[in-house]
Specification:
The protein has 10 helices and 9 strands. It is of the alpha/beta class. It folds into 2 domains: 110 residues, Periplasmic binding protein-like II (D-Maltodextrin-Binding Protein, domain 2, 3-Layer(aba) Sandwich), CATH 3.40.190; 108 residues, D-Maltodextrin-Binding Protein, domain 2, CATH 3.40.190.10. Strands 1, 2, 3, 4, 5, 6, 7, 8 and 9 form a 9-stranded mixed beta sheet that branches.
């Protein structure tokens, strides 16, 4: 098997391992991989709107929605890992206490600026975090110091550059960005975990696309996902 390019649309939470594994797949098979990363909402809308892809990697609920709409090949879904929403700071900065609901709330209120996904761009963690702040009754108080990114990667870059004192998104999106330090997951009471899966578009997908999905689920690839915080 050699030659040809496959297009992979992937949620940002999986960017670290997918970006690292794609060149290994190319070396092993000769197939180039074109990678497109964005939020789950943005990619789901683009795919549902007719944009072509050979492999699509989204949150499990989004994959299930596309399966029910008949947009994916039945039985092609492969679960890849679970991302955990957490907090990060710039490397070298003092690490806040976020171990309990009270400590987490206090850390948010004391922070000068907070980076998060803009929920309007369809990022799972951004939507969850906005709902959590509303539930905690501090959304209005924090609004002036929110620094919003379109993707989790942008949030991590805001933290690394010092534009955001704290960042909140999936820890797997902080890990690839040099200059960030993961503090930990959200307190257990506010825990948010999202499963991610890959699938082939309706019509079966090419042999190369099937091979890429299979490659992402090998034992060594699973270890790579784990090293980026995706269990």
């Amino acid at each position: 098997m050699s030659g040809g390019t496959i297009k992979v649309m992937s949620a940002g939470a999986c960017e670290g391992p997918v970006h690292a594994l794609a060149p290994e797949f190319t070396r092993a098979t000769g197939h180039e991989v074109e990678l497109v990363f964005n939020t789950v909402g943005a990619l789901k809308n683009r795919f549902a709107g007719g944009e072509a892809a050979d492999v699509i990697i989204l949150s499990v609920p989004a994959i299930e929605e596309l399966e029910q709409a008949g947009r994916l090949t039945p039985g092609s879904r492969m679960d890849l890992g679970r991302a955990v929403c957490g907090v990060a700071v710039r490397d070298g900065m003092m690490v806040p206490n976020i171990a309990t609901p009270e400590a987490f709330r206090r850390a948010l209120l004391h922070a000068q600026s907070i980076g998060a996904n803009d929920p309007a761009h369809g990022g799972s963690s951004g939507i969850y975090f906005a709902e959590l702040l509303a539930k905690l009754g501090i959304a209005d108080e924090l609004r002036p110091k929110m620094v919003l990114g379109k993707t989790g990667r942008e949030v991590a870059l805001l933290v690394a550059s010092g534009q955001a004192e704290l960042g909140v998104t999936f820890t797997s999106e902080f890990i690839p960005i040099q200059g960030t330090r993961v503090v930990g997951p959200l307190p257990t009471e506010y825990s948010y975990v999202n499963g991610y899966a890959g699938a082939l578009p309706a019509g079966g997908g090419s042999d190369a696309a099937q091979a890429f999905l299979a490659f992402l689920t090998t034992a060594s690839s699973k270890q790579r996902f784990k090293s980026f915080g995706l269990e």
